[in-house]
Structures are given as structure tokens and as C-alpha cells.
Amino acid sequence: MNQPTTTAVPDVHDLPGGLPAALEAVLMVVDEPVPVVELAAALEVPTDEVTAALRALAAEYRGVDGGRPRGFELREAGGGWRVYSASAHADVVSRFVQAGQTARLTQAALETLAVIAYRQPVSRGQVSAVRGVNVDGVVRTLVARGLVAEVGQDPHTGAGLFGTTGYFLERMGFTSLDELPALAPHLPGMDDLEGIDGLADLRGGPGPRRSRDTDRHTPSDAAAAPEGTDEGQG
Q1: Would you place residue 188 in the very low, low, confident or very high pLDDT band (cuts 50, 70, 90)?
Q2: Alpha-carbon distance 139 to 127, whole Å?
């Protein structure tokens, strides 16, 4: 009976450039931050050794020891490590990127994202209650951009609950939500929003009636969105 053949994995220290070069090779092909434990497992190197090598590379790219600062940098963000364009060259990169590919979020989208970030997991109705407007369209925009995602359902109402993603942490340059600025005390607590889903007006009147088509209109409907909503502003 033939035994399956296995290919021996080379010791990364024996490869040209050793561990630092092996890390660079892996980081060149990733599209999101990679945790140290993942890198260590893939390269079969102790975690502390990988961490030390990553920090040394990051310092080298910054020109800490008198070397030439690179146009890219190695940063820890979003729970892992990844290579980014150096922030000092942001204007150069912006001129290169085609218009529209780096479109900024609107004020409505930023405010909605802030509420979700600080009060997650939270339903669209609860976000609407905080902001005083319907946010269905803006939440869809944030989901499409990968900044928020549905993370569960409210056990009492069945409403979808939203939270921020790893991509949000990456874009913010955070490793965890604990690094958010201390703005949460300025937002209503979830106890104040208990049972609210679909409420979009805090001025004393009843919340707007939600139709079955609320979550089904497309971006083309945004131009006809009624006053008092953020539809079309994501």
C-alpha cells in the first residue's frame, strides 16, 4: 500500500532573507490584517519571534535607524498586521486614485456609524431613535462598504442587530473597540431605547408607519425619499 507523500516545509530561517523576508512575502498577498498567531502558525515560528520581527520591520520601514523611510509602512490594526501606504504620502496616493473610488462618507453616514460603533449591537430602529430620522438607507450603505454588518437578532422583536466590522477597526487604525474616544456618555443608553424598533421621530409624535417595502427600495429611490429621513445620503 502506497503511503501518501508529504512535502517538507522549509525552515523560513534558511530561506533568502530569513524570517523578515518570509513575513514580507506573506504580507504582500493579504488583503486584510493578519493576526500574529496566524503568521506564526503558517511560518512555523514562535509567536514572540514573529512579533519581534514585525516590529523590527515596521521600524526599518520608518527609517528609525537612519535608513531611508519607505513609501509604505507596516502597522498593527484591526487585530492584525498589514502593509499600508505611508501616511506621509497620502496626498500623492489620493491624486493617483481615480475620483469616486475614495468617496467620503456623508455626515449622515458618519453619525449613523458613530451610533452603531458606540451602542452595538443595535437595531436600525434604535439608531433611528437616537438620530431622530429614518436610517435604513444609510445603514445599507455602511453594510455595502463593509463598515458594519448584521450580527444577530433582537430576541424580543426579531429586528436585525448591527455592529462594526474588522474592516471598520482597520480603517480607524484601532486594534479593538476599547480605543474608541470616550463619547459614549453623550448618547442615550440602551435602557432608554428598550423596545424601540422603527421609531424615527423623538419629538413627541408617533413613529412613522413602516411598510413591507421599507427595506426593499434601491438607491434609485433615494431621490424621492421623504423629508425626515437620511435616504440617499449614505
Answers
A1: low
A2: 9
